[in-house]
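A further point concerns the way the authors explain their paired sequence and structure data. An entry of this sort, consisting of the sequence and the corresponding backbone structure tokens, reads as follows:
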Amino acid sequence: MPSKILALSCLLALVPLAAQEKTQLELILERLAKLEAQNEALQKEVNSLRQQLNPGGVPLAETVEVQKTQIREQAQSKVEAASKQPLAITGTLLMNSYWNGRNNGGAINSSSAALVPSPHAAGITASQTIIGLRFESPQTLLGADVTGYAMIDFFDTNARTGTPPRQQSRHLADYPRLRVANLELAWKNTSLSFGQEKPLISQRDPTSLAQVGIAPATGAGNPWLWQPQVRIEQRFNLNESTQIKAQGSIYQTAEESAAVPAAFADSLAPSRPGWQGRLALNRKSGGETSWEIAPVIHASTTQVAATGVASRLYGVDWLWAPTDRLTFTGLIFSGKNIAHMGTNRQGFTILGLRNVRPTNTRAGWGQVSYQFTPRLAANLYSGQHDDRNRDLATGAIGKNFLYAGNLVYRIATNLTISFEASQVRTDYIRLGRRLKNHYDLALAYQF
């Protein structure tokens, strides 16, 4: 009997031990299950990362090699300044084949019809090719974004336009020559720039690949001469789509552009400061300017023949795009003594020492452009420079009128072909009218 009691007591003692061991086993199994779930989750994350790094299923070694090749290609095309600033090479390789009628003055594309006829002429040239550099600094200066560019070409103004050496400023007679250059600091609503640009009072040009060495409609209502200047611009946003731009500049005039008798040549100051202003009101639609209108003003003083000759210009320029395909642009102005901005060279007439008469002028140009398809566009433009006859001597140009049209077709993203026909009608004081026809087939590769 005692032995039975002892065995029963042992069994009763083992019951809690078995229950305790069962509870610990369950805990171990639960922990193992959690670890397995975590392991599955980690495996899924690893697979997801692999898919992101190698979406095409290409072996990793091959992916790395492709990336290395891309890096090498980028390194070959990268241009970097000594200051480690990134630079971009840009420009247009332009080939022009042309045919000139009589009165071409022996030039490729003169801005007026010559008084004396000359033989018909034809040829081909790449001298209007443009090469330049652009940069955009990754760092700000005084809180402003910094951008800039410089463009050169190979166009000898005097030799290719039939221009006497003193008609254009000296820096245009050498080639390769600097066309334009600019360094701009841009804040949210203010910009300050330094460089060589077209006059502020003449911001736009007609569209042409025939006349690039000098601006289209030169001598026919388009002051164009690229000169050193400093500009400031302040923008006022009236609402999300309407803006006012107040612009001002100090422009260095090219006084040697005017014709001066040899006896007074040394009395002419070669350059003078000019003050220019432009107040533009514009409206944008879909990110593009749908219209803009801007009154403009210029003031400077020419020093010649021991006296000062006032130079003044008042005008208005415009852009109007009533549809996505149709655009009107242009400029009209009146003034006096404005030869130093790249117009006709008749800025003034010297009557004697301290007796100089400025030439009064009315001029302007206009263009209508139509985009038939994304690749094909047509441009028609016309311009006129009309000097007051009584301010001029016999043989001077009283009026210079131009009309032209071109078709521009974009063959590929960077390749464009254009055909243009134009005629210049030049009226000489008491000597009659002369005509000059010009035809041009251009091929342009932009890079």
